[in-house]
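Final report, Chapter 2: Outcomes

The project's central promise was a pipeline that accepts a single protein chain and returns its three-dimensional structure in a standardized token representation, suitable for archiving and comparison. That pipeline is now operational. To close this chapter, we reproduce one record exactly as it appears in the project archive, with the input sequence first and the structure output second.
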Amino acid sequence: MEKPVALLKELSALALIALFFYLFLFVDFHELPFEMPKNFLNVNTIFLSIVLEAIPFILLGVFVSSIIQTFLSEHTIKRLLPKNPIIALLPAALLGAIFPICECAIVLIVRRLIKKGMPLHVGVVFLIGAPILNPIVYASTYYAFQSSQEIVYARMGLAFILSIVIGSIMYLIFKNSEQLKWSRDELIGKLQTSEIAGRSKWKDTFFHASDEFFEMGKYLLFGAFIASLFQTFLNRSVLVELGTNELVSPAIMMAFGFILSLCSEADAFVAASFGNTFSNVSLIAFLVYGPMIDLKNTFMLLAFFKVRFVLVFIAVVTIIVYISVLLYGQFFI
């Protein structure tokens, strides 16, 4: 019974992805014999922009994840990481500053690293640090805020410190207990890895990459669609009116960051457009919180991690970021 249901889910996911590409490549909504509602066209435009922005990074993520699966052994990871769980947080944060990976792809990579033996709390540091600390995000933020360099340094500094703080808190809560969802096939594969020993490693990498792309694709499409609905129908004028309140405005911008689901390589330009409405503290909250948690990657997290872990993770990130940006504004701005 399980196999037909699993097959039906996979076929449904493939059908949705095929429908998306067909509509994108061959259908022009402006040439339809009837007039489409303006809101529908807006949802369609935002949905396509989110998906097209995310797909290159999803592809990057699935290939990095597959290379980790094929070429990196559990023994290597355990040998490279410091034995002390707290000291191990620092190299994870530094590692995030090297790889140009946004939040669209980081869930896949962290999941694979944890399956290979990386401690959960170290994976959390990489999960929230890498989408902000990488050099591409630094360059885009620097360019977007050339006249407000303190925002650039605040974003990078807070992201580095908070990734370590949040990783420590998650370690205290979960103590590296198993929080991943394992499918039946994955559990069997975990016990029977010797069966694929004779196959080419690069061929195996491409098999893993194609499987993960279609598996992740359905969650990307669903998350992008929900985010596009929020962006279209959310009454932003009410939220902008609250932008002058020092306590409320950072929370409003964090909510914007969550709902808009922007790629971290591009969100700085959107944040800069709010410069005349919201304070610098609120902009920093947007730039730090959005890449850590947004609507799109929440669906990805729920797909691969246990629900309790995801809810606690979101709560911890939200509270820590909010308190931190308020303290930063109090003492440094």
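Archive annotation: The radius of gyration is 21 Å.
This record, like all others produced under the grant, will remain available to the consortium after the project formally closes.
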